[in-house]
Design a protein that fits this description.
Helices cover 80% and strands 0% of the residues. It is built from 4 helices and no strands.
């Protein structure tokens, strides 16, 4: 966090905590119900994880936290800088 403190506005990140909590609860309840009602094996575990991922991301798309755009922008800049650094190292 110290290294990126000038690149990200942390106030905007923490404003959205309730939206992430709601998305987590929306994911948790069905996964817990399935976990307690189905015999545990590899397939059921895989389906629980897949269901959890889908529910969480759909919930986030519906709730639309404001910092998703900021995170996407940061990741794009980070990967661009990483690629440029890699090219410089390879060409050196």
């Amino acid at each position: 966090m110290w290294g990126i403190k000038n690149q990200i506005n942390f106030k905007n990140i923490f404003i959205n905590i309730p939206k992430y909590m709601i998305a987590g609860i929306i994911m948790f309840i069905p996964v817990l119900k399935i976990n307690t009602s189905v015999k545990i094996n590899i397939l059921s575990l895989f389906l629980e994880v897949l269901l959890g991922i889908i529910l969480y991301f759909v919930s986030l798309l519906v709730l639309k936290p404001t910092n998703l755009k900021e995170i996407k922008k940061f990741l794009n800049e980070f990967t661009k800088n990483l690629l440029n650094s890699t090219k410089k190292i390879i060409l050196f």
